[in-house]
Every structure is written in structure tokens, then in C-alpha cells.
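Worked example

This section walks through a single chain of length 541. The input is the sequence exactly as stored; nothing has been trimmed or padded.
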Amino acid sequence: MKIFLWFLLVFPVFTVAQDTIRVDISNPHATVYTHLYFLQSDSFEPEKAAKTILGLSEENAINKAIKIKQVLDGKGLYVDVNRIPTNPNYKDSIGYTSYSRYVLFPQRMPQIYVEKIEGSWYYSAETVTKIEGLYKEVYPWYVQKIQNLIPVSGYKKMLGIELWQLIGLVLVLVLAYVLFLLMKRLAFFILRRMQQRITKNTNLEINEVLKKLAHPISLLVTVAFLAKVFPSLQFGLDVNHWVLLGLNIAETIFWIYVFLKLVQVVMYIYGIFAEKSHGRLDDQLVPILDSFFTGLVIVIGVFQLLILFGVDATTMLAGATIGGLAVALASQDTVKNLIGTIMIFLDKPFHIEDWIEAGEVVGTVEKVGFRSTSVRAADTSVYQIPNSKLSEIIINNKGLRLFRRYNTNLGLRYDTPPELIEAFVKGVRALIIAHPETRSDSFNVEFTGFGDSALLIMVNVYFKSLAWGIEQSSKHRLHMAIVKLAKELGVDFAFPSTTVTIEQFPEKKGLSLKYDIDAKRTDAVIATILADFKKENTIEP
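Given that input, the structure is written out below as C-alpha cells.
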């Protein structure tokens, strides 16, 4: 009798103690564990699982608790309770404000989370409100309709799978294949129409690229269809987890492939527009942008794959930030060069094939890269100038000149008569006007001064072509014509000399040379030289 009374006294206390141990909502870990534990087949007590939901009747709370688990199972989201924090004062630090909440799957299912309410942890009001919509997304209305039509024999198992599930899986795969074929044609048709509307032309090469782009797009649609429909077959958490994980991995890989092909298409179209532009600097931007966007797509894709494998995005971003800071500190010059590259393409101080003077380097710009710019000097050697330095120094871009100015002085002997000086100047002016590569409306040929050993004739002329080679060829033709003119006129070019005057010298009648200053002769010489010059420039443009 005493034993029986003792049993009646201890049993309620034992039951309460057991209930207190099992039903625990004091921290995020305890709440999620309580919810999932009491909905397992071997410990199914939904009324206890419902205690993780606040503010509803027991019946409604049970319904919501079951649906939360079914949604997680349908999405194949395996809850690793060992990773859930046990701190009762846990704060979610993601965002600008900290909240007393814990999100189970921030990337894939952010609507389901627990939060602290009046000292205990419950599933949030947002989760309770949105669970009906989430349940309908995972298990559409037709699932219940189809299950009602399945006969009893359809629930028989074959190879561990119910017959209706096996038939449904085959139908889903067939529908997915048909959808893939249809979407492949449709995607190619849409992409080709868009390309033709943008570029206004058809190109066999870009059509091949568009076909390669349409293939992964159709696969993306097919994978999305399978991910949407597969949970309706109700294979359970383990199967759903691995199948949906595989589909998500495949989807991410297809997205990476799609964006890589999209970068290729966009860069191809941009290359067409760059070829039509006047400057060739845009042509250099094509490979740089191609490499940049390709790397960006791969990095983002790898991050997404790591998230699918359970790597925490916050930790990953923090590590990337710290790692990026360390790399930046270790490679400051590389970062400076990259910024310099951006500034060069924004400001465009020069274009490809421009002749520039950058500090001590003088030459033609051949290539602008991520780190440096290649400049080929007149002796054909190549200078690699870091873009950080190039963006800071003064650049004299001779390629942006409207014309190439050429200025020189011609020295005539001091004993040249004024009449021949005037005739020579007149002839040089006529040659400049007749030259096809010089500006006939802007030039100067004047007797400007007296040098140490010569009378100085200034020649200031502007060549039309900006190409260095054409400029040198134009100078050559002008110089040859001036030399011929001087020879025919009888004008001699001076050179550094010293004149010694001897007053008494046998048979020396004077100091001056004999010059023919007849005006008719000089005019005829100028006309002849000018006619020959025009004839030469007509035959050899």
C-alpha cells in the first residue's frame, strides 16, 4: 500500500519533469528540435510540436506545425540541429538592425524562422502566416486531386517505391523532355529576333553562339519544372534532399553556362559597334570587359555552389572581405594599375595607333591592358608603361592634333641677291600650295632674320595626315621640290663658314659671285619646277 501511494506521488512529478525536458522552447536550438522531434514517426506527438507556435488553438497550431515540416521535407531541406545556436539571447546580425531571431535557411527559405517572444522562442508570426502559401507552392492543388483518384493498388510498393510514385516519376521525366525540346526552339527563336533587332543583320557565327545559349536556357526551364513538380511525388525528406540538391547544383551550373555565353554574345555585339566607332580604344575594351565579366560570373557561381553545399554566406563574405583586404594591401600597385586602366577608358586621353609623348616615352600606342599600356617607339622597341603612372603623368597626344605642324629654317648664302631671295620665297610658297598633303590656307614662308652664317628663310607648314609615315613622305616630296627649285634658280644653301677678305689679290676683281637675277628667267624656273612637282604628285599620290 505504501509503495502504491509512493508511486501515485512520484509519477506526476516524473511526467512533468519528462515533459519539461522534452518540450523546450528556451532557445532556437531547443525550439526547432522540439518541433521536429515530436513529428517523427517513432515519437509522433503533434500536440507537443504545436507548442512551438504561439497564439493559436491547439488544432490550428498542430496543423501549422505539420505543414512547416512538410514544406521543409518537400523542399529537401535537411535541418542540421547541431548548427542551430543554443544561446537564449541569440541575435541575428544580418542587416542594419539585430533581431532576436534565427532563420533556418536564409538563402533558400527565408520565410521560415524562429524568434524570441516574451522570453521564449517560437516560430514567427510571419512563418505562421505564410506557411499556407508555401505549402501550396510545394504541394499544388492537383496533388490532392490526383491522390484521391489513385486506387488502392496504386499504393503497392515496387522496388521500395509506391506504384503511383513510379508512374508519376516516368510521366514527369517524359514531360520534362518534351518541355526541353519546345523551350530550346522557342529560346533560340526569341534570342535570334532580339539579336537581329539590335544589330540589324544576320550572322552565321553569332547564330551558332545563340544556339549554344538556347540549350542551357531550355535546360534551366526543365530543371525548374522538375524542382517544382518532384516534391509532389512525396518521396520523403532523404530522397527529396539529394534529388533537389542535385537539381539545384545543375541549375547553378546551367546559370553559370548561360551567363558565360551571354557575356560572349554581348561582347560580340559590342565588338561590332566598337568596330564602327572612330577610335580603336573601344576595340581594346572588348577583351578586357570579356575577361572581367567572365571572371565575375565564375566567382559568383562558385559562391552559389558553396552555399548549396552548406557553407555559410556570412562567413564566406567575411572571409572574402578579409582576404580581399589582405590581397589589396599586398598588391597595392596592381590595384593602382587597375584603377588607372579604368580612368584611361573613362577619360580616353588617347586611342590605339595614336602617337603620344608620355614623359620620356615617345611612340605609338599599340595595346591597353589590365595592368599596363604598350607603346612602340620609333626604333620599334616596345615600352610597357604601368597604367597607374600613365594616368598621373602629362600626356601629349599628337594623334589628336587636327594637323601636323612642321617648322624649319632654310639658310641662304649672305651674298644671295634680294631678287633671288624673293624669287626663292615665291617658289616655295607655290610648292606648298600645290602640295596635296599640306594646308594651302595656312602656311608661312618668310625671310625672318640673319643667322651667323646664313640668311634665314622660315618655312612653317601644316600636313593634313596625322600618320607619322605619311608625314615623313610628305616632307620628303616637299624637300626634294625645294632643292630642285634652289638649283634651277642658282640659289646656294649656306653652311657654317668664315669669310676672309684680301684687298689686294692678283686678277681678283670683286668679292661677289655671279648671280642671274633676270625676272623672266626666275619666273620661268618657278613655273617649270611647279609643273614638274604637280605632275609627280599626280602620278604618285
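What to look for: Confidence is low (pLDDT under 50) at residues 1-21.
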